[in-house]
Amino acid sequence: MNTPAAPPRPASYDKNVALVLQGGGALGSYQAGVYEALSTSDYLPDWIAGISIGALNAAIIAGNAPERRVDRLRQFWDGITAPPLCWPPWLDDAPGTGWGDHRQAAAAAALLFGQPGFFLPRPPAEWLFGTAPTSLYDTTALKGTLEALVDFDRINAREIRFSVGAVNVRTGDFAYFDNAEIAIRPEHVMASSALPPGFPAIEIDGEHYWDGGLVSNTPLQYVLTYVPRRSRLIFQVDLFPARGPLPTTLIDAYEREKDIRYSSRTRVTTDTLRQVHDVRHNINTLWDKLPEALRATPAAQFLYAFGCVTTMDIVELIDRPREIQGYAKDYEFSRRTMEARWARGRADAEAALRASPWLAPMPPELGARTFELAEAGRTAAADPA
Question: Are 331 and 107 in contact (CB under 8 A)?
Fold first, then answer.
């Protein structure tokens, strides 16, 4: 059975395209699959914003020529999911359920041995002598990985907009490192993915930064509210599903709690921003109907400052594996599971492109609308883990 092709993008649909990548550790290979589908479509992003693992994927995409991006993403994910030397080969064929399966073993291996090219446990000497560390792992290897896979000169040439979010440890303020405003270095990307207490804060220009996911796990707000605004089609990739089955074990409950905790913040942010943009849009529509006397009043002038003529289409691509993944799924870096997540991301994005619901006319009263299409692309072949 032939899969129908995605409809061509009409010239009349002239919105800029953004890709928004949230945090989620090992879950981030789903994002790589999404980008692989977009890379051969009519909707190549001109702005990529990320937080945590999304910042790492975003840097690899923005820091490479279009024809090399997918290969570089593959190099990154193959590299950091390479099994440790002590890994028994039979674990890769173990069933996907229970404490003794390959997922739990891979998560335990990450905790004990780290992941190559990403993070390593701090040696005992650091705890026994001198000043005690403020993190469990060392991420020096990540800098080398970024320098090998990312052309930061290309990012700073601004061929594509690039933004990553982090939190100032001293002040608690959220900060975005944006190549439209500053020169991006590996430290900016590492700061966005420096989740405590696992990873150390990253020093940048005298300040220290942690993972942006501590405040917001999605950079959607930054993309939607940055002035001057542009009408956009935004692909928002969510790694934690809001909906899920009722837990039947304590382990299932741990996973479900984590999904709800992270997805709820993303949903609240998305819903609020959509409503706010609807208000902006309707303020602008109403302004055109006001007589000059009303336009001149302070109240009208105040509201007019919040008006906006842009419209936004937000496509929510959500990783929804068909079976329980385990509460440790965000630090379970087995190659087998990584490939399954990648395949799900590609399948879901391809289904969204085939459906292309954003091509339907925008209702005049709306400034923004959302589309949730994750289930449409799921196939048995895309879900081997």
Answer: yes
Query: How far is the C-alpha of 352 from the C-alpha of 324, rounded, in Å?
Result: 24
Give the mean pLDDT of 52-75.
98
Of 212, 252, 233, 380, residue with least CA distance to 317? 233
Q: What angle do CA 225, 64, 151 make, to 5 degrees?
A: 95
CB contact at 8 A, 266 and 240: yes
Residues 334-369 have pLDDT tens digits of 999 999 999 999 999 999 999 999 999 999 999 999
Q: Give the DSSP H or E segment for 70.
A: helix 69-80
AA letter at 161: R
* Per-residue pLDDT band at 108 (split at 50, 70, 90): confident
* SS3 of residue 133 by DSSP: coil
Q: Which residues contact 122 (CB under 8 A, 6 or more apart)?
A: 133, 135, 136, 137, 138
pLDDT, tens only, 111-153: 999 999 999 999 999 999 878 899 999 999 999 999 999 999 9
Is pLDDT above 90 for 68? yes
Residue 282, Cα to own-chain centre: how many angstroms?
30
- Bridge partners for 204 per DSSP: 207
Q: Quick one: tokens of 35?
A: 């980008």
Q: Report CA Rg, the chain.
A: 22
E strands, 161-266, in order: 161-168, 174-178, 202-204, 207-211, 232-238
Cis peptide before 88 (omega within 30 of 0): no
